[in-house]
Amino acid sequence: MNLYALSDEISRLHPEASALVGAPQVEVLASLAWYLRQLDSQASLALIEEAEYLITSGSLPEDQSRVVRSRLLLTQAEIAALTRDFELAEQLLLAARAGFVLQADVTGEGDSYLVESVLALEQGDMKRALSASQSALSRFEQGCELLRILLAQAWHIYLLAFSEPERARKDLMLLVSTNELKHPALAALIAATQAELLFTTEVARSAVLYSQASELAQKAGLIRLAIMAACNAGVALQKLGDFDAAATSYDWAVTRARKTEWPLMIAFSLMRFGELLRHLNRLEQSQQVLEESLQGLIASNHGIHTAIAQAELGTTLLLRGLPKQAAAYFDTAIALYRAAGSRGNLAEHLISQARALSAAGEPMAALMAIDEARQLIIELSSDTLHIDLRVALAEIYARHELPYSFEIAAPNLVLHFLEEALIVGNGLQGWQAPATLLLSLAEAWSAVQQGKKAFEYAKKAIAADRRERNKQAENWATLMQVRHETERAKADAIHHQQMASASLETSQTLKLLAKVGQEITADLNFKNVCQSLQRHLGSLLGAADICIWLITAKSGELELSYCVEGGVAISPTLSPNENKLRNAVLCIGQRDELVCESDVSATSSQANLFGPLIIADRALGVIAIQSTNAGAYGERERLIFRSLCAYGAIALDNAYAHDQLQKTQDQLELALKELEETSLTDPLTGLKNRRFLIQNIENDVALCIRHYQLNPNDKNRIPKDADLLMFLVDLDHFKQINDKYGHAAGDAVLVQIRERLQQVFRDTDYLIRWGGEEFLIVARATSREIAADLAERVRLVVADKNFLLDGDLLIRQTCSVGYACFPFVTAHPRAVSWQEVIDIADIALYAVKHSGRNGWVGLSAEEHAWPELLLCTLKNDPKGAILNNELKLATNKTPQLVIDALTKKQSIN
Hints:
Layout: H1 7-19, H2 23-35, H3 41-56, H4 62-82, H5 86-102, H6 106-122, H7 126-143, H8 146-163, H9 165-178, H10 184-198, H11 203-220, H12 223-240, H13 243-260, H14 263-279, H15 283-297, H16 304-319, H17 323-340, H18 343-359, H19 363-380, H20 383-399, H21 413-426, H22 435-447, H23 451-521, H24 526-541, E1 545-551, E2 558-565, E3 568-569, H25 578-590, E4 594-597, E5 607-615, E6 618-627, H26 635-652, H27 657-679, H28 690-710, E7 723-731, H29 734-741, H30 743-760, E8 766-771, E9 774-782, H31 787-799, E10 803-805, E11 809-811, E12 815-822, H32 834-849, E13 855-861, H33 867-876, H34 878-883, E14 887-891, H35 895-908
């Protein structure tokens, strides 16, 4: 049983649940309930009830029933957590985990920790959520289930993105670089993590990634993540000013959340939607939506989510001119923030409370809230809140005449605090005064008859407004670009899928045509051949009618020999249609297929396809088929039709049977070969891809191992060219080329890299585009003694000659090379797989990239090294392996720098 299931798997299980009986039925019901726990919680609970009834009825043996019951309890626990019945969820979770532990089911135990992580998130306990996800990963690693391990890693990194973004960024890079599995759940978690990490720096890309995460999560059945990601996509789109797209995202989230009946998801999506309505100045609707959001959380009046909802509603009420009601909501929010220890939110909303109290005619209470906020801001070192606090003070003193005991240089307190806000902001790196602050300063100086200063600030306000509008336009452009890139990536993925599908379809068609050809040519009876042609043309091409004309020996003219229309055989003595006969004559005269479609104005559309029956230069006759669908006969259909015409001709003239069969098969096999070649080639560089390597390297590995195993005690008898040398080449600072010159320039460099690598390596070596700007070269049948020389040649061929970009622009580019040789331990050639050798080359690449780049590092084993121990030491203590003479280091860098880099990698791991 997997963690999540796609729609195909769920669709397959539904009929099985009804068709099966006994133990198999119970297991299918339990699987379905587990897979539907987020997709349709109510349906999942109904399936659990049915499974429990069958278990109670004795449909399962006792030991098997304990396993299934544990899974059912865990499913109920997650649903209870999502419906915020936390006490029940905790009880069910403990009972389920106890069952898994009793059965020594580490996979089930790991699943229980992932459910605990969801429960902790619903309770607002991020620390517990992180701990639970780490425990899940530990259990999955014990069970050696790769997909679950990757999903647990991705989930843990996703949670880290909210609390430790730098650590999350490093862990995510490692996960993405080492993972080749493509599963929607995994892709959704990766996209959501990337979106969160980019939210503050690349909001447009974050918006697109969050939207992708939501779509992928829906496919995988991760509905909670899908709703959260859709809401976060809406926040990013709102920040970009794309309010229509934000509203669409929120609308989907609200609709899907209501369907789940999960209180937190409903409240969260409504809260985001209410915030958007407030931004659009639809304050009354915003109040209604936020009140509904708060109502969903009020039953459990604790936690950060309730506090945020209270504060959002307070903000809307304040803008509606209802300061007393707003202050009451801010009071509740502040109390909840204090209880949760959320000091940043507390400081922000103390300022909001001060504004509400001031507007409600309670200036002294407002100043007390400001004083508490000021103290928190100082403790938190939150410079941006310092600015907002001073703006709020200016608003308070503008509204009330209050005594003060401090000296001011400005004409009044309003200007004093606004000028202070500007001074604080100007002291922040990258801060630019917003138009609203500058306009407030212009109005305040104008009010004290300082026209010159007011005019200066007014001009600055206009410039700031223009800058903000330009920034919004820039954000829009970035969003459009990211969307374009995303759609292009999707189109490429669809294209590759179509190619793979076409390759499979061609292969299947080849096999089928071979069988059809055997059937047709095995029978020399004319009627049987015609009936066989009719049957296969109908099944392969959907032909409703078929006519066969043969050239008579006496007259040399076409004569109808076989005809079926609408499933009814027509006597050859009755001519079917004069138009068909004329087209048949035209077809045999042209000796080529002829497609005739009905006019657009015809009452019923149809298409006719005529094919000549020809052997060598001798024409035998014509086959015609008809479809009721206009445009039914494309290139693929004509190719199949041409094949069947050839088989038909062979059946009528057996002397040419083998020749025609071979030609037809050769043509289709060529198409298959071309498609296969395309699927094994990187479209940009023309180099081979990973799939090509996986298909071809095993023979090289087997030959290499054979050389070493045949001569285990006599090294002199081992050929010098018995090794496989594996080089990983990475272009240094390649991202800077894309950022500075554009992706077209980056593509040009990648293409030229292919040409330079071909200068170093032989045509028989494998040159693979490994991913992005990284290349893998497998030098086949080569001595490991020349590995260092080859690495240096690669470095030089990249670094010594500038790369030519469009417009005759020349740039310099360097690369880093890491290499290792197979077999890694020559005394034990099978002990370290070729994939692990590539991983070792990757460690070497890491070392050179963290030793100044533009160089190479090679790692090889000493002859006396023990493989299993060396692999473990290499990953955990490479420095120790080198110093203990278990591992040899070759490099053009300072060895100590490389060893330090390897030590750094160990500490990161």
